[in-house]
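RECORD TYPE: inverse folding
INPUT: structure tokens
STRUCTURE:
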């Protein structure tokens, strides 16, 4: 596990109100259940249940993502990215990735939806940052073929509040 926390670094650039983010499937700082692993690691690529609350006034949509900053790529690994989630949606059910309200971008595997954890042997403990941002716009000015990094750039400037839930996984 690297010491770098991309979301802590982003918070030094501008402040975000807190957004409560919980899950019935994953717990803060705990290993991901096998269901949330990728098929190569014995899992089923099942997206976790997520619920969020406490969005501030002016919230017009949400963006949801899962990012592994510990992937041995130099740039991390995006497992999931959804944007333009309507403001009245405050949860995703277990396994709902690919069918969620909003626009789902392609993950690092090139597939729109959630791809589970798959940390390579010898790379230690990986952190999986599940992040929900309450946004001040109904629609972000990006296309459905944009990368999750472009989504991250856009959401940074439109976020009113952010909730983060970090789970872990290791093949070691």
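DESIGNED SEQUENCE:
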């Amino acid at each position: 596990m690297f010491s770098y926390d991309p979301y802590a670094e982003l918070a030094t650039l501008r402040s975000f109100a807190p957004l409560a983010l919980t899950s019935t499937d994953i717990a803060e700082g705990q290993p991901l259940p096998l269901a949330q692993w990728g098929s190569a690691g014995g899992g089923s690529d099942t997206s976790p249940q997520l619920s969020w609350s406490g969005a501030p006034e002016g919230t017009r949509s949400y963006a949801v993502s899962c990012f592994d900053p510990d992937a041995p790529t130099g740039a991390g690994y995006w497992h999931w990215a959804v944007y333009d989630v309507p403001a009245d949606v405050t949860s995703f059910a277990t396994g709902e990735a690919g069918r969620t309200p909003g626009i789902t971008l392609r993950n690092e595997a090139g597939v729109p939806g959630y791809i589970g954890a798959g940390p390579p042997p010898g790379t230690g403990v990986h952190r999986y940052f599940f992040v929900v941002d309450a946004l001040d716009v109904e629609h972000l000015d990006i296309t459905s073929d944009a990368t999750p990094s472009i989504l991250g750039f856009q959401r940074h400037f439109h976020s009113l509040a952010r909730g983060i839930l970090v789970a872990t996984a290791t093949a070691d």
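NOTES: Strands lie at 17-18, 20-22, 50-53, 61-68, 77-86, 91-92, 103-104, 126-135, 159-169.
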